[in-house]
Amino acid sequence: MLKRTSEFVIEACIKLSGLAVIIFVVAIFIFLLKDALSLFGVHSINDFLFGKKWLPISEPAKFGVIPLLLGSLYVTVGAIVICVPLGVCSAMFIAEVAPSHLKHVLKSLVEILAAIPSVVLGFIGIVWLGPFLRNTLNLSTGMCGLTGSLLLAFMALPTVISISEDALIGVPKAFKEAAFGLGATRWQTLWRIVLPSASSGIIAAVMLGIGRVIGETMVVMMVTGNSPVIPTSLLQPLRTLTATIAGEMGETVAGSEHYFALFAVGLILFIITFIINFIADICLRKARK
Amino acid sequence: MEYETKIETWNLNLYYGDFLALKNVNIRIPHRNITAIIGPSGCGKSTLLRCFNRMNDLVEHIKVEGKIFIEGQNILVPTTDLIYLRRKVGMVFQRPNVFDLSIYNNLRFGLRIHRMLKNKNDIMQAIENGLEHVGLWKELKDKLRKNARTLSLEQQQRLCIARVLILKPDIILLDEPCSALDPVSTLKIEELLRALRTEYSLVIVTHNMQQAARVSDYTGFLYLGQLVEFGDTDQIFTNPKEKLTENYISGHFG
């Protein structure tokens, strides 16, 4: 009898925790949606989505999200272009080439890389990388998109490396054996057989890397210069969606137009990360088959 | 026994770390025939087979002593061109290991890595010949873009054989090629092997004695890393010279 009661209690607890997670997610989404949609009662949705100017404290205020969206896009694309080749090649090296003792060292290093707090990276960006880029590239300021991209690439590397590595290790040994048996070299096997077989896992790694980069706030707020104008190159100061919310939320009056506009920015960010994670999930599922 | 030799080993010893897995093996594999290597599991059959295309190189802590001659060349010398060796000595594995690629690209892979045939028509012709050879062309000619992993296991194993044939090897090593297949598919693959013996020298490792008796011309019995007896398949199965062989084939152990 006692056993049955405890069984029931445990089951109920587990069920409840599961439900709680779902309720939290839904509640966050509803909260975000409600406040974001409040903006469009007072501000035209067209001006928000396609407006080219973000001037929240001018009179009349302008809440065009395009500069922020492009800011995020530039920094993210920059970071991914740097991070993906580096990450996938490192994963290939760790999974297929490195001797086992080096493999262990590298894997722990990658884990340490993941443990660096973003504010520390931002700090390095301000005191070293920014000035370094300004001097070497002869810029007017080192606080620009490129600095952000480089640091974010660094932040996304552990994600990209460890998930790609899992995908590469998951390729059946039999494929490699078959390729070697046909006379393929190690490189040919890696390039033509292992890499294509791991492709869905690697795409998932890239997607999760993008998710990591696009949602990152602290680093970009510290090093990208925070100028909400449409960027024409990565060498200019810019501002991302995340940095805008973090930087301006403290100055707004709750319930004001500006306040709702920041929620609308948050909603856009949420939708973007949701789509990216969704794609990553599909790829991972395909990879596990 | 009088026959033309294709592969010959001289005092072949193989160590896994400290363990002596092959002891002083001297075997002569005949030209254009099927040779079966039988023996209980763990006796070194696969290890011996994998010496002939140096697949053991991929395993760490293995040391090979002695000589293996293929057409007069000792393939154990470090200067051996492994890429060429593995083209000439093809291998079919226990489980069909087609790549996660289309049927076409599975066959194309070998041609590509060996830089054989650049012309599209020649490649197509080679692929057609390969599939024709293993009896798959009629079934698959309209499905060449399909992923090879969607085929049945028997078809996959045939495709693996075609993938080897397309490289024009002299020798084909088969490591328990039917162990993943059902009895009907097994018979069909055996039929294919019989057809191939006029053009290629085949070496098949099997723990299935009936299979060895059905398919092979010569049989070697390996026990605890030693070649106990080698001879004509009929003789081995009807009139073995060694007591150990007789006990094994009559099912007293193994």
What multimeric state do the chains show? heterodimer
Q: Which architecture of the domain at 5-97 and 170-249 in chain B does the CATH hierarchy give at level 2?
A: 3-Layer(aba) Sandwich
CATH topology of the domain at 5-97 and 170-249 in chain B: Rossmann fold
The CATH architecture of the largest domain in chain A comes to Orthogonal Bundle
**Low-confidence segments of chain A, ≥5 residues, pLDDT <50?**
none
Q: Over the alpha carbons, how many angstroms does the gyration radius of chain A reach?
A: 23 Å
Average residue-wise pLDDT of chain B: 94
What is the CATH class of the domain at 5-97 and 170-249 in chain B? Alpha Beta
Cα shape of chain A:
globular
CATH superfamily of the domain at 5-97 and 170-249 in chain B: P-loop containing nucleotide triphosphate hydrolases
**Most extensive chain interface and residues per partner:** A-B, 17 and 27 residues
Number of helices of chain B: 10
The CATH homology group name of the largest domain in chain A: MetI-like
Instruction: Work out the strand percent of chain A.
Output: under 5%
Order of helices and strands of chain A: HHEEHHHHHHHHHH
Radius of gyration of chain B: 18 Å
N-to-C CA distance of chain B: 27 Å
Structural class by secondary-structure content of chain B = alpha/beta
Count of folded domains of chain A: 2
Summed over residues and divided by their number, the pLDDT of chain A gives a mean of 92
Explain the overall architecture:
- The complex is a heterodimer of chains A (289) and B (254).
- With 289 residues, chain A is mainly α.
- Chain A folds into two domains: 41 residues; 224 residues, MetI-like fold.
- Chain A is 78% helix and 1% strand.
- Chain A has a two-stranded antiparallel ribbon with strand order 1-2.
- In chain A, a hairpin with a 6-residue loop joins strand 1 and strand 2.
- The model of chain A has no long low-confidence stretch (mean pLDDT 92).
- Chain B has 254 residues and is an alpha/beta fold.
- Chain B has a domain of 173 residues: P-loop containing nucleotide triphosphate hydrolases (Rossmann fold).
- In chain B, the strands form two sheets. Chain B has a six-stranded mixed sheet, with helices on both faces. In chain B, strands 1, 2, 3, 5 and 6 form a five-stranded antiparallel sheet that branches.
- In chain B, helix 3 runs parallel beside helix 6.
- The two termini of chain B are 27 Å apart.
- Chains A and B meet through helix 7 and helix 8 of A and helix 2, helix 3 and helix 6 of B.
